[in-house]
Amino acid sequence: MCSTIWMTMRGTLSAHISACLVLVGASMAMAQTKTVPDAIKKEFQAADQNRDFKITLEEYRALPGDPRALVRDFKLFDFNDNQSLDQEEFAAIPGRIAAEKRGALPDPMDDLLLQAVVAMDAAYGDWDKAPGRQIHSRIFAQGFVISLAPSTTTASGNVSVSSSQMEEFSKAADQNKDSQVSREEAGRFLELQLGIIRADGRKTRLPNGRVLQLSRFLNADRNRDYKLTKDEFLSGWGGDDLEAVFVAGDKNHDQIISFGEFQAPDWVGFDDPIARFLQADQDFDGECTDEELKTVTTPDQLALIPFVLAAMDDDGNGKLSLREFRLSPLGNRFSGLETAPVDSNRDRKLSFHEFRFSGIGSHLLHRVYFHRLDVNQDSFLTEDEFYIRYKQPDKIYHLSEDGQEFRAIYTNSEYPFFGSPGVSNDGQQVLFDTWKGGETFTSGRIFQMPITGKTGKDLCDGLMPSWSADGKQFACSRNGQGNADDYGIWIMNADGTPFHKISRGWGAQWSPDGKTIVFTQNGGVSAFDVATREIREVATSNQIGVDYVMYNMSWTPDSSRIAFHARLGAHYAIASIAMTGAEIDPQIHLDSELGIENDVAWSNDGKRILFNMIPQKGGSYRLHEIDAVPNATPRRVQGVPEDLMTCSVTRIPGGQGFLVFSRDR
């Protein structure tokens, strides 16, 4: 099945592909149309002294220029190694004509594409011998996901991958939207995944060797609107005479470089790795050392050089050939590898899942680079194989009621993840869930600490703790950690020992008056009566007017209502319902296209709801609040630093303010 595509490619990544590999299908043909400008034709004819339609080394050395450079260029551009240059080979050499008019040359990325196609054909039962056969788009997408990262399969053989990623791959492969993937569509999909084309079909790699600098565009585009203002370009691009460069690129004179203008072949949107390589090769030996590479590498890529040399130097001579350079991230400015990936699970290494680069959707290309960078082949990248941005541990802050005081009170390097805080009714003790680096929330523990912070005590396994009114017990969710019978809502003693299980369900929240524990079940809200131990369904999602209710609900101080994050189609909502009286009185306080975290909190006066929301597309979570009325307008909470990413919030009873949890981006 398709899971062997990457595995088949991996076996031959360091080898050159045989020239006899032929790709069937006109849409996948890799042959370049070679046109030679008249100016180059005349220069070629002048250099071809014996008029035999080829230029020998002796004839080439007679041209103006440094003799050492002439000899080197002759060897590099004699692509068929026949000791002479034909007109097309001659036209590909930089320096004789404007870069955008230069002739075509073989692209080593085509070798990777051919490998991928041959592997794909083999994975689907010799697809090339039955090219009319089609595959359902979701099956194809699932196979591609498994091909990239076999760890996405669980012990039972099921695929563990986000629905959004499956949808992304399914749509990209099924270009005619018939839910089937033809071999022709699959070939185009592989081109997209290797960064050879973009989703709109436009080439990212031109026949003359120039490469679209997508990563530089994205890094300069601070507000992620896919266009560059003059300020973004001048501050984020780098180089000389940027004012003049901007004016030349702004074809319609609107003071903006659109993405279409950026892709103009006669502008700086396309990098010229061929010319850069020749410029770097200061000793004219046709290869580049690390010191030579530094002379043509932009500051944002300098840290890449030692990693690239270790990963891409196939012959192990400590240098990069032109082919090796062009395949590497240094010569492929489309790749995005100049931005250090984040060690999101804080285990001090990068998995392929963490090897992500914002805005660059070429997953197969990144899989190739990950494999090459993984020098010891242990399926992870450590800091001696690639640069890593280590996330700092989460922090807990105390925010005063008036927003005038905001101070850190707790962090923990051994247990760097935490969330879902709950404060006792006397405002003195805090419970929260936490887990170690390299683990997920499924390994969550419940910690207790004093409201002053400083130290945390490990009580038990579990998530989302919530104190009883008298502080002698707490409710929490437990995932069983291997024991399915333990999954669900539990009441625990204050020391972390079990008291009894309530029910299946998730996200228990004990009311301030101690009478009721609410939790989510079947997308709606259920409640446990502490005195009678009876469970009732409070409201279904349909009754509330949402698709489903999320966990981490919050009670008003008087125990009359609960607020929660809910989903409304593709939107996010903050809603609440009444917990007293005959009617649930559902209210939608906020309907947003932007992401909202699950934790919500009422203010101590019961008039406001606090939550974490992404303020704009491409941003990260910030603490917001709304008035507890329908269709409220969100606003930033005063007193929290503008640049602080927040993830959880809860009120401190008695008007003492809030606990705010922050997370490194």
What does this entry look like structurally?
The protein is of the alpha+beta class. It is built from 19 helices and 35 strands. Helix content is 23%, strand content 25%. The strands form eleven sheets. Strands 25, 26, 27, 28 and 29 form a five-stranded antiparallel beta sheet that branches. It has a four-stranded antiparallel beta sheet with strand order 12-11-35-34, with no helix packed on it. α1 packs across α6 and α7 (137-148) crosses α8 (163-173).
Give a topology summary.
Elements: H1 4-10, H2 38-47, H3 57-61, H4 67-77, H5 87-91, H6 109-123, E1 135-136, H7 137-148, H8 163-173, E2 180-181, H9 183-193, E3 211-212, H10 214-220, E4 227-229, H11 230-236, H12 242-249, E5 256-258, H13 259-262, E6 270-271, H14 273-280, E7 287-288, H15 290-294, H16 305-312, E8 320-321, H17 322-327, E9 342-343, H18 363-373, E10 389-390, E11 395-399, E12 406-411, E13 417-423, E14 429-435, E15 445-450, E16 457-461, E17 463-467, E18 473-478, E19 488-493, E20 498-503, E21 506-510, E22 516-521, E23 524-529, E24 535-539, H19 541-544, E25 548-549, E26 554-555, E27 561-568, E28 571-578, E29 587-592, E30 596-602, E31 608-613, E32 622-627, E33 635-636, E34 646-652, E35 657-662
Parallel strand pairs: 9-10
Antiparallel strand pairs: 1-2, 3-6, 4-5, 7-8, 11-12, 11-35, 13-14, 14-15, 15-16, 17-18, 18-19, 19-20, 21-22, 22-23, 23-24, 25-27, 26-27, 27-28, 28-29, 30-31, 31-32, 32-33, 34-35
Helix pairs in contact: 1-6, 7-8
